[in-house]
Every structure is written in C-alpha cells, then in structure tokens.
Amino acid sequence: MITKVLDVSSEPINIDFIREASRILQKGGLVAFPTETVYGLGGDATDKEASRKIYQAKGRPSDNPLIVHIAKFQQLEAIAKDLPENAKKLADAFWPGPLTMVVNKNEVIPYETTGGLDTVAVRMPSHPVALALIEESGCMIAAPSANTSGRPSPTKADHVYEDLQGKIDCILDGGAVDIGLESTIVDLTEDVVTILRPGYINMEMLEKVVGQVKIDPGIVYNDKGTTSGAKPKAPGMRYKHYAPKGDLTIVKGQEANVISAINEMTARDMAAGKKVGIIATATTKDKYKEGNILVIGDRLDEKSIAHNLYDILRQFDELDVDIIYSESFATPNMGQAIMNRLLKAAGQKTIAV
Length: 353
Ligand code: TXA
Ligand code: MG
Hints:
Elements: E1 4-7, H1 15-26, E2 31-33, E3 40-44, H2 48-58, E4 67-69, H3 73-79, H4 85-94, E5 99-104, E6 119-123, H5 128-137, E7 141-142, H6 157-164, E8 170-173, E9 184-187, E10 193-197, H7 203-210, E11 213-215, E12 247-252, H8 255-271, E13 276-280, E14 292-295, H9 302-319, E15 323-327, H10 335-345, E16 350-352
Parallel strand pairs: 1-8, 2-8, 4-6, 5-9, 10-11, 12-15, 12-16, 13-14, 13-15
Antiparallel strand pairs: 2-3, 3-7, 4-7, 5-6, 9-10
Helix pairs in contact: 1-5, 9-10
Bound molecules: threonylcarbamoyladenylate and magnesium ion.
C-alpha cells in the first residue's frame, strides 16, 4: 500500500484534502491525523474491521483499547450506556481539549474497538484538523497514537511516516503538535473520578471541577521506582512503552551533582566503547563535557519539555546511542505527566545522586 501524505498545515485548512481523508475513513481505511496532544491513527470507531486494521498496523496487542474521538457532546451520549453527571461538567470545562473520559459503553461501539471492555474511552480533540475530519467524515474516529507499538508517540507527521509508511492509507500532515504528551485519561465509572494516565490536565484542574479526584494506585511509583503492586487500570499503562533503543537512566538530585554524575558515567561508558546520549536543558547543556548532548527545552518552560520529549527520544534512536542519561523533570504543573512518560521510557531506571 502506498501511504499518501496530504499537507493540511496551513490556514485555511485545505478542505479537499479533508474530504479525501474522510472518504478513506468512510470506506473502512486508516488515516493518521494531528491532534493537539500527539498524532492519532484513525479508523471508523463503529467498524470492527477498521479497528482490527489499526491494531495490525501498529502491532498493538488487541486487548489494549482505542480512544474514540468525537466532535459533539451528543456523540458521547450516543455511545455511553449511562452518563455520569461529572461527564457533562468535565466536558464543559475541558472539551474540546486533552482530556479522555472512560464511561460505560452501549452497543454502538464494538468490542473490537474497546479491546473487549464494557467501557469506552472518549475524547473531543481541539485541533482544527481533527475536528474537521470528524465532522466531514461523519465518523466517530477510533484512534490510538500513530506510532508502532512500543515506540514514542508521534508529535510530527514525519514520525508517523517513519513508523507506518506502507501500512496505512493516508497521513494528514498538520505540522508539529502543540502539547506533545498524550491526553489525561479519567475513569468516570466509579464514584470518585480517577486519573488513569496523567497529562496536561492535572489533578488540581480536575479537582476544581469535580471535587475529589484519585490517582489509579497502579500508576503510582515509590522512591525506588517500583509500583505499588496494583495493576494499572488502563491496559496501555501496563505495557513497557515509549522505549528508546538506547538504555535510558534518569539521574535525580541537585543540579550540580546530577551534572557531575552524568559526566563521570559518560566518560566511563565511552571508555568502554559505548555511544552515549545526554538529555540536557538550555541552562545545563554547556556543562556536559562529551557524548551526544540534546537539549529538551527550558526547565522554566515546562511546556517546551513536554513538547520535545518524544522527538528527542526518536533522535537518540537515529543516533543509535547505546546509553542515554537524562536529568529529571519534576516540574510544577505537567511534571507528573512528563515524569510518568520518562520513567516508562527508562523502564523505571533512576539513580539518585
Ligand atoms: O492524546 C491522546 O489520548 C492520543 C490522541 C491521538 O488522542 N491518543 C492516545 O491513544 O494516546 P493510545 O491508544 O496511545 O492510548 C490510549 C490509552 C491506552 O493506555 C488504553 O489502554 C487506554 O487509553 N484506554 C482506552 N480505552 C480504555 C478503557 N475503556 N478503559 C481504560 N483505559 C482505556
Ligand atoms: Mg500510545
């Protein structure tokens, strides 16, 4: 199959390209498209075959459910079995935007889309290309992140092309995405709203809207970097994910200590013939002596760190480094989401200095 790339990165959006992509979805094909978080790999959410094709293209385990993307609140009402009051409140506060809600499903969305679960994850993205595609196609779009399973989520159309070229019908290229980390997922099927995956919409923002909010104990790590023992409720959070090819270690501690520890380890590894990558920030980059140093962003601008994380991990894959050392980014608002992804990429490997 030849994957067609259509450029929708300039305003006004090229409606002919949106129509072309819409026809592919209506015929059961797959279209990758930009959202404000990461690129999604879309198919008609009500079409079992389309969902099967998504799993196949990504090499994704079929018990890991897809997120259904909608453009109107009524579409949530149409696929939910019972809609908790909090769904309306959260939609008013955060939709369209980077929040996914898990609710009980009715029969409209097939089990092929929900990985066999009786619940469905739903999100209304804010990216104009995503909204135009949902509206023009008339489809609710099932879309996981548009990466090969186990690779970092794509934040640029090039990343999608790298992973899925020849396996999907079309890529809508809307340029680099805004946020760069996947949406916050909340479970609304229990009494207390529960965060299943941290993201740009953080706990405080949610609490202001619905009162008490819990974090799924399965995604909480202790100081040693191990889990509490509970299994994450979102199936996708159970897999090793976002893994770069190089062996990634996060180094925590005071800045000066972190820098000297990374310099020492890098010298040792390079002497042993290894290729080393370092994830640095704008202010620390000049303090590293050797290795492949990439700047993730500015520590005072946490959005820049989120925005560049996956691209940096992919760059290290291309550089073919054996070992990667990263500073730690427990920043105030998005820190939990950033560290959640970084720790997963590192397989929880952390050194405190
Ligand atoms: O920002 C995003 O959410 C992006 C863009 C494309 O919208 N999508 C995304 O999809 O990150 P994906 O498939 O990579 O991650 C979906 C996550 C997985 O961890 C999956 O297990 C979880 O959502 N999930 C989906 N349906 C669920 C359900 N019914 N119950 C619990 N977790 C669910
Ligand atoms: Mg994903």
